Amino acid sequence: METPLEIAFHGMDHSDAVEARIRERADRLERHFDRIVSCRVVVEAPHRHGHQGKLYRVNIMIGVPGRELVVNRARPNSHAHEDVYVALRDAFDAADRLLEDHARKVRGDVKTHEPPLLGTVSQMYPDHGFAVDAERRQYYFHRNAVVGDYEKLEPGDEVRMVVVYGESPDGPQATTIEPTGRLGAGHREG
């Protein structure tokens, strides 16, 4: 890095242990792209919310030639983010993926996606779900991958999926889930 790593804590006391973890993960970022100009990490502990507890927010701003790449975990979507180390892990994992994508674009590599695939929603959770194809292969998807209203999806609904392989440690991941309009048995008319 051309400029030293910047670390800021908001709404919480400075922690040598948290800073050490940030420095460790920031040092590893250059494995994905060796021309990082700057890196700033902000860890914020917002005030306690009723039943949710304190969900840590982590923002990472990575300067590369000609632009800034930003990982913004401003709205934590998991109660696991009550642990600052889990919030850091998730933010730095996202930064790793962002830098890998940037490096591919700089090299001129094109990320290939399979053509859309038909599937059926099999499981739904608050922030993610799973769909299966005709061969019963399972694909993970995040709520942000859904075209339309995530809350209206139910098991049994038919979807069109854009799938990438090798992107997730849990196997193939659907980066786009688009309902076809054929609804599962869980939807009620009327």
Write the layout of secondary structure elements.
Elements: E1 6-10, H1 16-29, E2 38-44, E3 57-64, E4 67-73, H2 84-107, E5 117-124, E6 128-132, E7 138-142, E8 158-164, E9 173-179
Parallel strand pairs: 1-2
Antiparallel strand pairs: 2-3, 3-4, 5-6, 5-8, 6-7, 8-9
Question: How would you briefly describe this protein structure?
Answer:
With 190 residues, the chain is α+β, with helices and mostly antiparallel strands.
Tell me the strand percentage band.
25-35%
The CATH homologous superfamily of the largest domain is termed Ribosome hibernation promotion factor-like
**How many helices?**
2
Can you summarize the main beta sheet?
5 strands, antiparallel
Q: Roughly how much helix do the residues carry, as a percent range?
A: 10-25%
CATH fold description of the largest domain: Double Stranded RNA Binding Domain
If classified by CATH, what would the architecture of the largest domain be? Answer: 2-Layer Sandwich
Unreliable stretches covering 5 or more consecutive residues = none
pLDDT averaged over residues: 84
CATH class of the largest domain: Alpha Beta
Number of domains: 2
**Biggest sheet strand line-up:** 7-6-5-8-9
What's the multimeric state?
Answer: single chain
Inertia-based shape: globular
What integer value in Å does the Rg equal? Answer: 19 Å
Q: What is the number of strand segments? A: 9
Q: Order of SSEs, N→C?
A: EHEEEHEEEEE
